[in-house]
Specification:
The protein contains ten helices and no strands. It is mainly alpha-helical and 195 residues long. The protein is elongated, with a radius of gyration of 26 Å.
């Protein structure tokens, strides 16, 4: 007398059985197709994120060429360590979810470009303080995560800094309420009037 198969064996056999209708493809083939599509879509999404974080993409809007020129000659463009951050290094948070959220918020900036809100150097200057305040607020909200992704106060050579700078930097602790922008506004771009 045959004993009944355990339920999980029957389920496994049913799962891997070829379907009677061709368009159902079956679990194995359908699973591989879904996996392939998932890899392609994920790779495409990550590739698009990477592309939108390049300086070439950021400056493809003509009004962003001026801020890139302002960066030239600063410590963020050329330094003894050879570290050269791009636009996204400072303007996109280093964590994945926060970075994707920042990309989504950037759509409003594209709208500003399309409508010509900052389409000329004069218009850009007229809105510079407003734009800078938004960036400073982001830095305050995320405890200057972009700065801290490169600058680690625990690794700073305080003896090579001025007394005032060493005292300020040694008190910087994550979540301590003081961010880099409290002292370093205008470090990479021209400081707006009133800022």
């Amino acid at each position: 007398m045959n004993s009944p198969q355990p339920w999980y064996r029957e389920f496994g056999a049913w799962l891997w059985r070829r379907p009677q209708r061709w368009f159902l493809l079956g679990i194995p083939l359908g699973g591989f197709i879904a996996l392939f599509l998932g890899v392609v879509l994920t790779g495409g999404f990550l590739g698009a994120l990477h592309l939108t974080e390049t300086n070439a993409f950021c400056t493809s809007c003509h009004e962003m060429k001026e801020p890139l020129q302002e960066l030239k000659g600063t410590a963020h463009e050329s330094n003894v360590f050879g570290i050269q951050p791009g636009c996204a290094s400072c303007h996109v948070p280093p964590t994945f979810v926060a970075g994707v959220w920042r990309h989504m918020k950037a759509v409003t900036e594209v709208w500003g470009n399309l409508t010509g809100k900052i389409g000329t150097p004069a218009k850009f200057e007229a809105h510079r303080l407003e734009m800078a305040e938004k960036v400073w607020a982001e830095y305050a909200a995320n405890d200057a995560a972009q700065c801290r992704s490169c600058h680690n106060p625990a690794a700073m050579a305080f003896k090579k800094q001025s007394e005032e700078a060493a005292a300020s930097h040694s008190s910087l602790v994550p979540g301590g309420g003081v961010t880099c922008m409290d002292c370093h506004k205008g470090i990479a771009h021209n400081l707006p009037k009133g800022g």
